[in-house]
């Protein structure tokens, strides 16, 4: 069994080798002079499974050049860079690893909320600038009491629910919008269900996004949605950058249509310093101070989560090749079964 570690980003493949044991051989696609080395075409035909590292990209070469690949695992949650239909026609089941960083992302969403609603960065920066005059309160614009406030969730899946549990511990009331959950879910988890995104944004003091990136959700949080925002809204995004229209967010913050935003993900990564919102934040313009927090797509990260992600990726490939298991398969509707 030969497994390709596609666009492999880690320092070494020790974890993958330990996970696969003596059962298979690893082929590592590495970097040379800042670019990924091409996978030799003669090697592609001998590969049985692929573990693909970076989000938002596809494997080197079309699926037809990998005729024997049974399983392709996106080593992470998002899989929007992979051509699910083409891989399915190739007889390749595509998987993600949805559960390796549930705790970390939920923790990070709450951390972004707290950094704004408790003024952590504002106070820290003020004291660092001048320990005497900076030793004051009331300078963080988004600070408020969380007990009794409404925490709105866009997408009540694994991570959304984990985040809701954490927010509830602060005494917040939970509401959500998720058109794909069955009726009665709001009863099971004791939350308020909103029929539309606009309804959710209109009643929420904090909105946290936990939806996938696809054609339906790109630009989901745009001018139309933000126009319905409850005054003082804090927006948190730890999902995908494409879900938030950055131009619309800039305008909503600039006009104080919403109060603040905490973003772990952006439409363009690394951050585009020429964008008006990012530029104003970097320059420390008065209107944005204390109202925007950025982190570098790090919500998923802890040493433990990275180990889990890598081990689970190998386990997923092996499980499918051994038994045909389709747990966490994301292209079932396109999958052409291979002849036995």
The largest sheet is: 7 strands, parallel
Outline type? globular
Return the string of H and E elements.
Answer: EHEEEHEEHEHHEHEHEHEHEHEHEH
The number of distinct helices, counting runs of at least 4 residues, comes to 12
Overall strand count? 14
CATH level-1 class of the largest domain: Alpha Beta
Secondary structure category: alpha/beta
In CATH, the homologous superfamily of the largest domain goes by the name NAD(P)-binding Rossmann-like Domain
User: CATH topology of the largest domain, anyone?
Assistant: Rossmann fold
Could you say how many structural domains there are in total?
2
Largest sheet strand order: 10-9-8-11-12-13-14
Q: Tell me the fraction of residues in β-strands, as a range.
A: 15-25%
Q: What is the C-alpha radius of gyration, as a whole number of Å? A: 22 Å
Name the poorly predicted regions.
none
In helices, the fraction of residues equals 25-40%
Average pLDDT level = 95
GO molecular function: DNA-binding transcription factor binding; NAD binding; oxidoreductase activity, acting on the CH-OH group of donors, NAD or NADP as acceptor; transcription coregulator binding; transcription corepressor activity
Domain D-isomer specific 2-hydroxyacid dehydrogenase NAD-binding: 110-299
Keywords: Oxidoreductase
Protein name: Hydroxyacid dehydrogenase
């Amino acid at each position: 069994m030969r497994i390709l570690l596609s666009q492999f980003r880690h320092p070494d493949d020790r974890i993958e080798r330990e996970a696969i044991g003596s059962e298979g051989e690893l082929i590592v696609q590495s970097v040379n002079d800042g670019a990924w080395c091409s996978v030799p075409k003669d090697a592609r035909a001998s590969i049985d499974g692929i573990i693909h590292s970076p989000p938002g990209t596809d494997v080197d070469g079309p699926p037809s050049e990998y005729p024997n690949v049974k399983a392709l695992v996106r080593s992470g949650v998002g899989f929007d860079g992979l051509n699910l239909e083409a891989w399915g026609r190739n007889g390749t089941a595509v998987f993600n690893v949805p559960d390796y960083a549930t705790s970390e992302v939920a923790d990070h969403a709450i951390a972004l909320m707290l950094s704004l609603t408790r003024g952590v960065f504002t106070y820290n920066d003020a004291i660092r600038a001048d320990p005497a005059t900076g030793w004051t309160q009331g300078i963080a614009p988004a600070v408020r009491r969380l007990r009794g406030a409404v925490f709105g969730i866009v997408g009540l899946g694994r991570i959304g629910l984990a985040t809701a549990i954490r927010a509830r511990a602060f005494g917040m009331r939970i509401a959500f919008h998720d058109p794909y959950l069955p009726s009665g879910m709001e009863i099971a988890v004791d939350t308020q269900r909103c029929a539309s995104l606009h309804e959710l944004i209109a009643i929420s003091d904090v909105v946290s996004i936990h939806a996938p990136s696809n054609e339906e959700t790109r630009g989901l949080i745009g001018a139309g949605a933000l126009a319905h925002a409850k005054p003082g809204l804090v927006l948190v995004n730890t999902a995908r950058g494409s879900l938030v229209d950055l131009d619309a967010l800039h305008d909503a913050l600039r006009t104080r249509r919403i109060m603040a935003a905490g973003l772990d993900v952006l439409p363009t990564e690394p951050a585009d310093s020429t964008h008006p919102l990012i530029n104003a934040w970097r320059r420390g313009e008065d209107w944005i101070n204390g109202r925007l927090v950025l982190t570098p797509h790090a919500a998923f990260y802890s040493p433990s989560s990275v180990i889990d992600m890598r081990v689970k990726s190998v386990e997923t490939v092996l499980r499918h090749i051994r038994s045909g298991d389709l747990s966490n398969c994301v292209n079932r509707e396109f999958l052409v079964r291979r002849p036995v």
